[in-house]
Amino acid sequence: MSKLEIVNLSKIYGKGESEVEALKGINLSIENGKFTAIVGPSGSGKSTLLHCTAGLDNPTTGEVILDGKNIFKLSEEEMSKLRRRKFGFIFQSFNLIPVIDIYENITLPISIDNKKIDTEYISEIINTLGLKDKVSKFPNELSGGQQQRVAIARALANRPEIIFADEPTGNLDSETTAEVIELLKLSVEKFGQTLVMITHDENIASTADILITIKDGKIVKKAENKQRKRH
Ligand SMILES: Nc1ncnc2c1ncn2[C@@H]1O[C@H](COP(=O)(O)OP(=O)(O)OP(=O)(O)O)[C@@H](O)[C@H]1O
């Protein structure tokens, strides 16, 4: 069953001579509980697609349907609630808050929403991501890989329906990359969440359930990997 329907999405940046058609009529269903990887050359429109799909940017035309509703028809308040409650984000830069400790960083999406923290679930995430002895530390006391694990934990904290990740390992060395990706996939499988990830890394892409290739703002290939190893 699909979770999110992307319908005829297009995005034009700029006007006149400086106009760039970044997305040209994208149609795609994001499948529930699966890991979808998006690959393609630099400038092909991957980040634009991810940002529009996640409601971080407005498309020029097209719809993104979640729970039967076009997210671009939501009010500003409904849209920010949607981003806060149903979506989780992981970017290349970890975007942790330096003045609060790791536990507070991880639980921030819940406290911002004035929700009660499910301490058992949060402990499970913290243990799965190997962060148990780091919870009272501050971001600058952690390595890049550890900070990205915190960002993953934060993205999982409010049990989002979908996690969007834009080159989440772009700033990490290859060993840490492998470790972070394994943990991300393990978390997604263990907690049953949908993951959409942009990556330049062919090894990572080859482990996805669904591999989408974008070129010049269009989907040129959609491949399903039925053999993917499960943990
Ligand atoms: N804010 C913007 N203003 C104008 N043009 C933009 C803007 N953002 C992206 N573009 C252009 O839109 C096209 C698609 O960019 P996008 O960042 O989506 O590609 P990408 O596949 O994610 O690239 P990369 O792999 O290098 O991150 C590019 O030609 C880019 O220069």
Discrete helix count: 7
Structural class by sheet pairing and helices:
alpha/beta
The main sheet orders its strands as 6-7-8-3-9-10
What is the 3D form?
Answer: globular
Organism: Anaerosalibacter massiliensis
Keywords: ATP-binding, Nucleotide-binding, Transport
Pfam families: ABC_tran
Protein name: ABC transporter ATP-binding protein
What does this structure look like?
Residues 4-231 form the ABC transporter domain. This is ABC transporter ATP-binding protein. The protein is built from 7 helices and 10 strands. It has one domain (2-224): Rossmann fold (3-Layer(aba) Sandwich). It has helices at 46-53, 76-85, 102-112, 119-128, 144-157, 174-190, 202-205, and strands at 2-13, 20-31, 35-39, 61-66, 69-70, 87-90, 162-166, 194-198, 210-215, 218-224. It has 231 residues and is α/β, with parallel strands linked by helices. It is globular, with a radius of gyration of 18 Å. The strands form 2 sheets. The chain has a 6-stranded mixed beta sheet, with helices on both faces. Residues 13-14, 20, 22, 40, 42-48 line the site of adenosine-5'-triphosphate.
Essential attributes:
single chain, 231 residues, alpha/beta, Rossmann fold, six-stranded mixed beta sheet, four-stranded antiparallel beta sheet, 7 helices, 10 strands, globular, binds adenosine-5'-triphosphate
